[in-house]
Design brief:
This protein is of the alpha+beta class and 120 residues long. It has four helices and four strands.
Length: 120
């Protein structure tokens, strides 16, 4: 790999706390923060779809933790979950890191169809 994924997962949050949200929401926000770190001067924005029956979590404030440590903590909450990280390359050739967090409760049907062959 390019090393960008390892760099992004090592991103240090001086303080990590979030409003109540689902595991998937937490993954989206961590990805945005990692992207801002890797590409200074850029912000991030997005649209997030949610249903009313997803587990909601409040993260107690964590200090001086890496993105990987935050993801490891999030997947221990509620019915637990898993996280996957990947590098993608844009049409312009820019390497970007992405972290996705899935809940065993909320994403059970989708996870049943995930095979190891899809994970690179």
């Amino acid at each position: 790999g390019s090393g960008r994924l390892e760099e992004a997962l090592g991103y240090n949050f001086r303080m990590f706390s979030r409003l109540p949200g689902s595991m998937r929401y937490m993954g989206v926000t961590i990805t945005g923060e990692m992207g801002s770190y890797q590409h200074p001067g850029r912000g991030y924005g997005g649209s997030f779809l949610s249903s009313g029956n997803e587990e909601q979590f409040v993260i107690t404030t964590m200090t001086n933790v890496s993105a990987e440590q935050v993801a490891n903590h999030i997947v221990t909450l509620g019915h637990k979950g898993l996280w996957l990280a990947e590098e993608t390359v844009s049409r312009e050739g820019e390497v970007q890191a992405r972290l996705s967090i899935f809940s065993y409760h909320d994403d059970a049907e989708m996870l049943k169809g995930l095979s190891c062959l899809e994970v690179k």
